[in-house]
Amino acid sequence: MRIAQVPPLYEAVPPRFYGGTERVVSHLTDALVELGHDVTLFASADARTKAKVVVVRDQAIRLDPAQLKSDLAAHMSMLSEVRRRAAEFDVIHFHTDMIHFPFFEDMAEKTITTLHGRLDLKDLDGVYRRWPQYPLVSISDDQRRPLAFANWAGTVHHGMTTDIYDFHPASEGYLAFLGRISPEKRPDRAIAIAKRLGLKLKIAAKVDAADQRYFQEKIEPLILGEPLIEFIGEIGDEAKSAFLGGARALLFPIDWPEPFGLVMIEAMACGTPVVAYACGSVPEVIEDGVTGYIVRTDDEAVDAVRRLGDLDRRKVRQQFELKYSATAMARRYLDLYARLGAPLSQDFAFAATA
């Protein structure tokens, strides 16, 4: 099958540091190549992939040092190139929200669009009613709730390449928080939990410009001078295995409708259980009492950390390999491509549904 993958251009594929969508696209693209497909990735020049690359920008937008740049212009140029080469592909897989909708109306049936963000935003309803012909993929069933009427082709949970994270059979005793410093991610909860337990908390997270004030006013005062809290900052894939693998648990104390939560399966890949609040996708991703604990209050979270010894880190890793490998994700997408009419050999059709 000839497949085009079209990610956003904000981060490299895969990202150097933080970045969910582009990281998923990277793992999906490579897995599709490994399964024998002809895959073309439209991306910035700093992409690293097993697929063929069409370079549409000199570097990813976020780490581009240029002071003046237009992310809209960059994406418009990319979509123009995808449009120009559309006849070369059996399926065009977009990860760019809805920006491509006006440009591919005459070939919507050969596209599939994975939505990676929250969908409870004003104005989205009108867009998905205006362009109902595009087949959509959710990354959790919960993500669909605000747009239940939309043209959903299926749900595909994220997956990761199994060999980039090492299994750690034992922890070093600290708790971990990984991702982004923002009000909805609730790092303040993680800090409060660690303090109540008297356990060290390591925070590896980026601080976006939009969240600088929140960090300075709400989080820094909780960290400064506190020996139990270590703020590391943003880390890349090369540091995640040791960071997550050394943790007693990943704290995922979110307070928003999380569409998926990639960090949960990154922790599971290391054998590290997750203590997560029951928001959004969490009940779909975490198997309570097996890969972690699902909680609703800080008291429950504290109790869950105390019960981590009841969990088997080998089973945590096994569940990751079974449900959240990049190959498992790719096969689910192949099944969707085939059901939408893209040509697929009998061997690959069988593998996609296995």
Give a structural overview:
The chain has 354 residues and is an alpha/beta fold. The longest helix has 14 residues, at 21-34. It is built from twelve helices and 13 strands. Helix 1 (21-34) packs across helix 11 (326-339), helix 4 (187-197) packs across helix 9 (298-306) and helix 11 crosses helix 12. Helix 3 links the parallel strand 5 and strand 6. It has a seven-stranded parallel β-sheet, sandwiched between helices. The chain has a six-stranded parallel β-sheet with strand order 10-9-8-11-12-13, sandwiched between helices. Residues 346-354 have low confidence and may be disordered. The chain has helices spanning 21-34, 71-84, 124-130, 187-197, 212-223, 237-245, 262-269, 282-285, 298-306, 313-323, 326-339, 346-353; strands spanning 2-6, 38-44, 52-57, 91-94, 111-114, 136-138, 152-155, 174-180, 201-206, 229-231, 247-252, 274-277, 292-295. 34% of the residues lie in helices and 18% in strands. The radius of gyration is 20 Å and the shape is globular.
Concise description?
Helix content is 34%, strand content 18%.
Provide the fold topology:
Blueprint: E1 2-6, H1 21-34, E2 38-44, E3 52-57, H2 71-84, E4 91-94, E5 111-114, H3 124-130, E6 136-138, E7 152-155, E8 174-180, H4 187-197, E9 201-206, H5 212-223, E10 229-231, H6 237-245, E11 247-252, H7 262-269, E12 274-277, H8 282-285, E13 292-295, H9 298-306, H10 313-323, H11 326-339, H12 346-353
Parallel strand pairs: 1-2, 1-4, 2-3, 4-5, 5-6, 6-7, 8-9, 8-11, 9-10, 11-12, 12-13
Helix pairs in contact: 1-11, 4-9, 11-12
